[in-house]
Structure to design on (143 residues):
């Protein structure tokens, strides 16, 4: 995949401040990924399954997933995605406040691409922007 090609991002986070910080960081760092925001796992699944009344996402996409959310948390979402034959190969990065080893192990058991602790990704999520830009320019994703 070349750096000019788009990767769509589904940001799944119920914290408006955190979600806005991620969006601002990506835009500030000239990362031009189209971003769709889901407030929890239920809404994210609706978007991925193309049944949400207003929101959609096109392939290729990757998911930035918070773990602690209402209705359906990140672990429940991961289980649903990995159990769905149409979504099981989705690329998912966990982006969370939890630095607990038990959460990290549990998330990797669901085949995540990476586990990022919000406090460790730099001021205003600058390391996240760099990671995503590097990922886009080096990894070839299926459409």
């Amino acid at each position: 995949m070349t750096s000019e090609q788009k990767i769509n991002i589904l940001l799944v986070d119920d914290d408006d401040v955190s979600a806005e910080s991620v969006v601002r960081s990506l835009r500030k760092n000239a990362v031009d990924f189209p971003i769709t925001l889901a407030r929890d796992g239920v809404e994210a699944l609706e978007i991925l399954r193309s049944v949400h009344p207003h929101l959609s996402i096109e392939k290729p996409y990757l998911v930035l997933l918070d773990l602690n959310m209402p209705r359906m948390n990140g672990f429940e979402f991961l289980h649903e995605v990995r159990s769905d034959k149409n979504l099981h190969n989705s690329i998912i990065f966990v982006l969370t406040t939890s630095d607990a080893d038990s959460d990290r192990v549990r998330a990797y058991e669901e085949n995540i691409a990476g586990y990022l602790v919000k406090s460790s990704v730099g001021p205003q999520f600058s390391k996240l922007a760099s990671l995503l830009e590097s990922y886009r320019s080096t990894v070839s994703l299926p459409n």
Notes: The chain is about 35% helix and 15% strand.
